[in-house]
Amino acid sequence: MKESATISTSGTTFRILILLSLIHLINDALQSVISAVYPILKDDLMISFGQIGLITLVYQMAASVFQPVIGLVFDKRPFVWALPVGMGFTMVGLVSLAFASHISWVLLSVFLVGIGSSTLHPEASRLTSLASGGKRGLAQSLFQVGGNLGGSLGPLLVALFVATYGRQNIAFFSIFSIISIVVTIPICRWYKQKLHYFKTAPDAGVIKRESPLSPRKTVFTLLILLFLIFSKYIYMASLTSYYTFYLIEKFGVTVSHSQVLLFVFLLATAIGTLAGGPIGDKIGRKYVIWVSILGAAPFTLLMPYASLQWTVVLSFCAGLILASAFPAILVYAQELLPYKLGLISGLFFGLAFGVAGIASAVLGKMADIHGIEAVYKVCAFMPLLGLIAWFLPDLKKR
């Protein structure tokens, strides 16, 4: 029994958090391969832009819509080995994509990869919360930074190994999946110990917490948080998907120069993600959410009218501030329903993925019709929607 007590009171388990961040990095790197190989798929299989859109739809459905469903299932019936199973789906999907010879095969492949992501995100986020030792913001920030770094590595992997040597080389990415599965083994064993403790320890009831708000107010607060995710990821989609095109068209920079400036922006998002969680632990998540979304507005509103140098500075500041919001929003939502960590994690990760995908498509159509600069002039007002954060209760006081 003493061993179980040690498990529950040992504080923040940084070894587990680092391993979770590592598998998040590998997962998101492999997930980002999908969009990076679109030009290669188009040439190899002679598919249309409409079919590219269909591939994106199937992938987004699997990677976004299924997340809260899978999270809810594992809330009710915890499954220790969910992480390696999810990575197994990703591995099979990528190997299948490497040899797909027609569009139906491609759709099945990206569906499997998406299911892998839908399994990993809510379950790994749940384990991140369990390993936090109370420092939930710090834990989620560490977890998110892994995903941010991984998302930027996928296109680089495709450029190095697939664009040069052929689509079949996607199969070699399964090596990363195997590494990730090996990494999950100590995590799964640790989780098994946790579940055993919750079931057998006489004081396990102290771990179970109730929602700090009434059911009606909880639903209202969750709707506010979902709306804030909506406003954040529409603007983030404009930067991650079209920033290079904006710089090339408005300032005439080279493609390589624009990629370097995109990296500067991505670096800012990584720093912001790492900072947002710990700051929320100290001062309260409501204030981090308030500042991180609404505080970006001065920079986004100025950027469409700035010079190249100031555009880089303003985009860095906007990315830094906006990126700090997601860990705070996710942990705030988890504290509203602490007994539904999988459902909440899946819902918010899924919405973030879905909004980003839909926004990219809509903004691309807008850019075709009105020009890329019009996109940034319109999206610049999105952070002002952060005013709705005023209605969030302060859970830190409660």
Explain this structure.
This protein is mainly alpha-helical. 79% of the residues lie in helices and 0% in strands. The chain contains 17 helices and no strands. It has helices at 2-9, 14-31, 33-36, 38-45, 49-76, 82-99, 103-130, 136-162, 174-200, 215-251, 255-283, 285-294, 297-302, 308-323, 325-336, 341-370, 372-379. Helix 2 runs antiparallel to helix 7. The chain starts with a helix and ends in a 19-residue tail after the last helix. Mean pLDDT is 83; it is low at 1-10.
Summarize the structure.
The chain has 398 residues and is mainly α.
Helix content: over 70%
Proportion of beta-strand residues: under 5%
> Which spans have pLDDT < 50 for at least 5 consecutive residues?
1-10
Roughly how many Å is the radius of gyration?
21 Å
Mean pLDDT over the full residue set: 83
Straight-line N-to-C gap: 32 Å
User: Count of DSSP helices?
Assistant: 17
Question: Major β-sheet, in short?
Answer: none
Supply the helix-strand structural class: mainly alpha
What tags apply to this protein structure?
398 residues, mainly alpha
Write the layout of secondary structure elements.
Layout: H1 2-9, H2 14-31, H3 33-36, H4 38-45, H5 49-76, H6 82-99, H7 103-130, H8 136-162, H9 174-200, H10 215-251, H11 255-283, H12 285-294, H13 297-302, H14 308-323, H15 325-336, H16 341-370, H17 372-379
Helix pairs in contact: 1-9, 2-7, 2-8, 2-9, 5-7, 5-16, 6-7, 6-9, 7-8, 7-16, 8-11, 8-15, 10-11, 10-14, 10-15, 10-16, 10-17, 11-12, 11-14, 11-15, 12-15, 16-17
